[in-house]
Amino acid sequence: MKLVDLIQTSLKKSILSQRELEATSIEKAGENLTPNMRALRLTMGVATQLLSMGASASSVAHNALGITRTYCTRPVHVDVSYTIITISQDRGTEREPLTLVRSAVMREANYQTIQRLQRLAKYIRTKHLTLAEAEKEYDHILATQKDHPNWVRHVSSGGIAAGISILYSGSAPIIALTFVIGMLISWGTNRLYKYGMSAFFVQALAALFATLMATGLTWAMNSGYIDFLPYINPTLIIISGIVLLVAGMMIVSALQDAIDEYYLTASARLLKVVMLTGGIVMGVAAGLYVAQRLDISFATTPDRLALSTTSYQYIGAALVAAMFALSNHARIVAALLAAGIGAFGYYCSLLGVAAGLAIIPSYGLAAAVIGFAATILSRIWQIPSMAIVSAGIIPLVPGLSLYNGLMHVIQNPTWTLQFDEGVSMLVRALMIAVTIAAGATFGAMIGRPMRRKALQIHNQLPFRKLSRKRPKPSETNPVIEP
Fold this sequence. Notes:
mainly alpha; 3-stranded antiparallel beta sheet; 18 helices
């Protein structure tokens, strides 16, 4: 009986304690944050989203500091180290400092989301949104992100490959062939990323596929199985695939971070570029080895492709720029604008060569024009300048120099003249990439003050003053105490 009483007493106590626990109101962390902490959290969210989509470190820091200057009385320090964002606030001697650290998971760029986030940061800097309204708008942006369907991305990737082939050939069958190969590479890389494969091996398998396709087509043509194509240049097939892979790299962003003195972020991004380029080298070398083992004739040295007519070059440059913008979820208007900027930038590069400049300064001049035009037009058309710059410089990416250098290095011993020529080609490709990044950054630096001056002149016009509306009292945004 004592044992039964003990059990009953224990059960009653357990039931009573459970009821008391259920009746107790527990406040969870994060439900009642101070306005200062909410502002820092909003800043961290915007900065993380921008960095994860490939925005430059200077752009991320600029937008983050604009938000904190509006909503915080105490100054805030923002540091970007590749994928790590640190926000630190010194709140004086009476309160503990606040430090937030977050790691951004890299993902594909979405220019529509970048545009909306940058517009939100702009409205906050101009004090047109309260903190509650800004938080609500940020949540709405993340909940209603607009992505293109996968088939649009695959078609646009095929368009990039077709645009590269148009630069060097006006043959319709070859253009259609490279278009199909580009679509297959885009579809395959997308599936491999979904399976969790690392970027290095994805690059290697994509380059292997492009090399094997070029080898197989060459064998079929030499064997008489393909008679509708008079000649297939395997270099053109591989170049189209390689540029499609290089287009996804962050070469220009990395070098732009170095120019903006974010050296740690630039070093990490450059190392990623080196690793992805190593994947391309591994894939091409494996494809050549398979071709040799199967006794399939393949060019031992890369052919020097000749550019097609000027009209075809402009069409190819415009198509590459437009398709690259579309593959990153840009709007149709942004894609058309990128096509015009890409063709105009390519025209500037040809103009520089015709004027007697070397290829490297000519590409730098073209990139500066692209950066300047993108900075001016982005405000008019409400399109992020990053979208136009990235798309406009893609036709200038030294894919052919990269391929020729890699082939010479892979296929020749280190003591031969061809190996030294390959190394010089790789250095030349790197110098072109540096010049493109420097030119685009310089053009944007010149364009920003001119854009501000043009806006000031526009706002001082009489009709502009009459149409300007005063902000509502609810839109005024007092500074929030920490």
